[in-house]
Amino acid sequence: MKKYLISFAVILIIYFILVIIRNKMENTHDVDLNLPAGTSDASLISSYTNGCTETALSKNKFPRNIIGVSTVHPYSETYYSLTKELGATWMRVEFDWRAIEKSDGTYDWAAADTMVSEMNKNGLHVLGTISYIPTNLHTWEEIRNHFQKFMRALTERYDSQGITYYEIFNEPNLPGWAWLDKKTKPEGYIGEYAILLAIANKEIRAVNPSAVVVIGGVSSDTITGMPYPDFTKKLLSYGSSKCFDIFAFHPYGHEGKFAQTVMELNSLFAQSGVAPKPIWFNEYGTPENKRLQYSADSMLKERGVVDAWFWFTLRDLRPNNRWNYGLTDYNFSKKPIYEILKEGIQKGSAQ
């Protein structure tokens, strides 16, 4: 019993360290939004979520055994080449709403067009993450109206180019990180997230009923944000279950208990009277070099507990930083973990 408690304490300490490190890392994308209070009007929220529909894509046609890379980097041929060599077949990439809609109702698609074209040329599947609310939108009514038009324009533009998996923002139970800004606590904005998720569902379905909506990857961080069980139950209480097809989760610090995590998430659905959803771990990794192999081994050992894993990230986020998550350094030099993970992916794919 004593040995078990010591092991648990060590894992807990490591998890806290990872969270602190991650939140101290510079996030150059994050700016103050100065958002007004979000709605908690259940009738207003349900007026949006009641219109949600699930994908027409048969569940047995959902992809399985996915290994992907989650990235925030500008993309390059080297990035694509190393991703494919690793054995990853998917990339989780950003459609940065703030960068695309730089002015009121005007869209700059140049960077996104290039990204989608290169992904297709390299035979990589895309999980497109919608990120960052434009800073020139100052009320939630404005945000909702602009988001509706943006999502319709985005899906109409890229559906014919094979983009059919959309993740609606990122880590909506945390401040910052592509949803709210770092000063805004997420507890008061679950209703607004539910509304935007419903809007995305409606606009995506209007273009392609078989497209797949992925909930913004929910974080395992219970320190700086809202604990994921509380967030999930509150979101589901607004009737959001039909607004997404896949539940995405970021299992940082859950090494050795991934299967238990899946059971816990399924239990949250059951408690809310909702049928289980496919679960993707669409962001996972560690910045500690000495723990990279342990994290990779843990992922490979329990690979089959979910349909998709996305490693964060292929390349270190910036140079000369010992707290980096990459399988390569900033200059694309492979770390030993790259080859270890590559070998493990190949073995798993052959099974």
What does this structure look like?
The chain is of the alpha/beta class. It has a single domain (48-350), classed as Glycosidases (TIM Barrel, Alpha-Beta Barrel), CATH 3.20.20.80. Helices cover 42% and strands 13% of the residues. The chain contains eleven helices and nine strands. Strands 5-4-3-2-1-9-8-7-6 form a nine-stranded parallel sheet. Helix 8 links the parallel strand 6 and strand 7. Mean pLDDT is 90; it is low at 12-28.
Key attributes of the depicted protein:
single chain, 351 residues, alpha/beta, TIM Barrel, 9-stranded parallel sheet, 11 helices, 13% strand, transmembrane, Glycoside hydrolase family 5 domain-containing protein, Glycosyl_Hydrolase_39, glycosidase, hydrolase activity, hydrolyzing O-glycosyl compounds
Instruction: Please state the average pLDDT score.
Output: 90
Number of strand segments: 9
Distance between the termini: 37 Å
The fraction of residues in strands falls at 5-15%
How many helices? 11
Order of helices and strands: HHEHEHHEHEHEEHEHEHEH
CATH topology: TIM Barrel
Whole-number count of domains: 1
Overall geometry: globular
CATH class, named Alpha Beta
Strand order of the largest sheet: 5-4-3-2-1-9-8-7-6
Low-pLDDT residue spans: 12-28
Give the fraction of residues assigned to helices. Answer: 40-55%
The CATH architecture name reads Alpha-Beta Barrel
Q: What's the CATH H-level superfamily name?
A: Glycosidases
The radius of gyration over CA amounts to: 19 Å
Major sheet description: 9 strands, parallel
Structural class: alpha/beta
